[in-house]
Structure prediction request, 371 residues.
Amino acid sequence: MNNRERTHAVLHYEKYDRMPVVHFGYWGELLDKWLAEGHITAEERRGYGDGNAIDRQMNQRLGFDYGHCCQVGAANDLFPGFEYKVLEEYPDGSYVYQSGMGLIEKARRGATSIPMTVGTLLTDRDAWEKEYKHRLTWRPERVNADRIRQIAAHQDEYDVPFGVHVGSYYGKVRDMLGVENLAYLYADDEELYAEIIATLGETSYQNVKMILELGIRPDFAHYWEDICFKNGPLVSPEVFAEYVGPWYKKTTDLLLSYGCDIVSLDCDGCIDKLVPIWLENGVNTMFPIEVGTWNASIAPWREKYGKSLRGIGGMDKRVFAMDYAAIDRELERLKPLIELGGFIPCPDHRLPPESKWENVQYYCEQFRKMF
Prediction:
């Protein structure tokens, strides 16, 4: 079996020879540390990207089979984006800038935490009509047709799961407005709120449709949202179900008509209240299932929703900063979760700066032996 076949078998509750050893990439600060320690070269540090040749080289040295990422996609949000520009700078090293999504944020140079939202260019319907709507509306140029055809001609040669990225229906709206402004928009202008989500949803749908019509046959499709924190979602589940749910359903039905029945979604935080909405609308694989401070696990979801729910993630990445004994305990904790089926352990986010190269190697070696 190759890793593409293994992954298909695990997520479809079929027999497999061994569990694939999967990761979710690395924080830049960790790559900087590994460069300083001599584990990777300067060329590898500069050129690293999810799923590229350097990632595959590192997989071989560390012991991973592959990283969970997509091989194909299109321009699913602002096209073109706004110009990035610094608006103000302060003596303490902080500065205010305009992002490519039109969000006005404040950050501090050298800091790696999430920046503070100051404002947005999307202030009202007039701004939407003049500055945003044409950047979100679908047109064929969003899909690089020549590249898609070339990939489609060789997609059967991949020995890792072949994925298509299908975008974001709410997280990217949050990236344009900020959490508070997006919440206020629903109260202040519900019609505009719905129109923005619908425009983004239709663009994503048309992109996926064109990609499939050009010959791509993905093993899985993947969404990104990141709309939860440690206590739950950043949006009312009822509102999310009403305005966003139908767009998931429209696209997942399209994917299913082309034979793609595994749809994963990347959302950090405590996602429990959104899980049933995703399942009802064709998203069946939760990722990265952060252990974190909220102790996420596939086990209670499986008990509640049955085998229709799959998972990739749920491995506590914090043990990479500890010792071999901590890694052994984490592997033991994963045993009953793997036995549930339909679950592939993967570090529950990008590996953090404290991770030790030798610990990651040990984890991969022991994981392969045990599973």
User: Anything to note?
Assistant: Residues 103 and 120 are 4 Å apart (CA to CA). The mean pLDDT is 97. Residues 83-120 form one domain. The longest helix spans residues 190-213.
